[in-house]
Amino acid sequence: MNKRKILIIDDEPSLLESLDMYLSERGYEVNCAINASEGLKKNETFNPEVIVLDIRLPDMDGFDVLKELRRCGKEARTIMITAFHDMETTIRAIKLGACEYISKPIDVEELEKAIERVLKSFKLSHKTKVLTIDPFQSYEKGEIIGKSKVMKNIFKDIGMLSGSNVTVLIEGETGTGKELIARAIHYHSLRKDECFLAINCSAIVGNLLESELFGHEKGAFTGAISTKKGKFELAGNGTIFLDEVGEIPFELQSKLLRFLQEMEFERVGSEKTLRSNARVLAATNKNLWNMTKKGRFRKDLYYRLSSATIGVPPLRERRSDIPILIEYLLNKINCDLQTNIKRVEGKAIQRMMEYYWPGNVRELENVFTHAAIMSQGEVILEETIIPLLCREGIAGKEEMREPEKENNYSIQEVEQKHIEKVLNHARWHYGEACKLLGISRPTLRQKLKKYEIKKPESIFRG
């Protein structure tokens, strides 16, 4: 087995000797350089996987060495070491591409752990048994991602409802993408060239919400210094999206009901009746029917809003979509933040699949945004993900409870379905399937036996 190669560049002979001895005893192949020039030459001939580089060198600044290492295009990861503990030095080293930053006097155990993390990232960046991000995959803002059965049904619903003018109520937990669905209905409808106006009903207090929706006349209330058109008037023939519609005050609900029935309304402070042809789409993360039973929401308004409904499942009920969501979100994050994440460790994916996701897709995006920023390299590792899942206290028993069995996809179930899908795609050609899955034939045979996957008879018959 080949030893992992480490190059140490430092101007302290005693430190070089100590680190050489310590790391060699632990099975690494170590080479040392006393200055930058020697270090750059040995980088070319020794081809290390990790470079431990001092910032202060006699013949060249360590930052310039780091730039030169990046310019030569070698794949070695760099760990910077320095006796200077200031913030600016650390920030500069990381921005120039250093994977780790260790302060002097060096704790050899800390250094060894840093080397192990860097080597793990290096190894995973060359493995196929991880989720690989396709940099050429097109990213479209507002795209709805999902291949699970429940998401395919939602796509069908969008197709049917976009062809009519019916009011639609979109129900689902926070972060499931209810507004994306509303926008998809609008942009696939005959109103696609008209405006789409969204308003969060929970973000505006009662009397101001009425003005926001229906407008007001000059002097209608304190602060109304001019006439203002509301969203229904501005929308014209477009679409109004009422997010968190369950937060509309009870006294304002009758005015919304009248609009849905008659397409008429008055501005606040006016007796003049105005008309609008706007289509209404609404969303809620609450159970409106239960609210009607408690007298907090009008039944007649509920019936009007729910002429057609779309139930958006929480992420934990469509776990099989998580890998493609991760790929989509990381392409988005790479585009938005100019990061260069290309792979996600398999163990990190497993953590994603097992997690309860109370914040749904919005939380998934938040987790991977932080992970992409914090990752030093092209691979997101399990240890980067774990703290992000626990930071909100989401490891509590209540929130980590298992969902209903029929909606719970275990890792094994997801893997089984994925293997079956790949085999069908490859028409049960084991060699081709192994390439697509990134596994060997013996491993494939083991999994076929484990999951009792059998070749369909129709395949035998050709």
Describe the structure in brief.
The protein has 462 residues and is an alpha/beta fold. It contains 20 helices and 15 strands. The protein is 45% helix and 13% strand.
Please tell me about this protein's structure.
Helices cover 45% and strands 13% of the residues. With 462 residues, it is an alpha/beta fold. The chain folds into 4 domains: 5-124, Rossmann fold; 149-311, 3-Layer(aba) Sandwich (Rossmann fold), CATH 3.40.50.300; 318-406, Helicase, Ruva Protein, domain 3 (Orthogonal Bundle), CATH 1.10.8; 410-460, Arc Repressor Mutant, subunit A (Orthogonal Bundle). Strands 2-1-3-4-5 form a 5-stranded parallel β-sheet, sandwiched between helices. A 5-stranded parallel β-sheet has the order 8-9-12-7-13. Strands 6-14-15 form a 3-stranded mixed β-sheet. Helix 3 (62-72) links the parallel strand 3 and strand 4. Helix 13 (322-337) packs across helix 15 (360-374) and helix 14 runs parallel beside helix 16 (382-390). The chain starts with a strand and ends with a helix.
Strand pairing plus helix content: what structural class?
Answer: alpha/beta
CATH superfamily annotation of the largest domain: P-loop containing nucleotide triphosphate hydrolases
The largest beta-sheet arranges its strands as 2-1-3-4-5
CATH topology of the largest domain: Rossmann fold
- The appropriate CATH architecture of the largest domain is 3-Layer(aba) Sandwich
- Number of strand segments: 15
The fraction of residues in strands falls at 5-15%
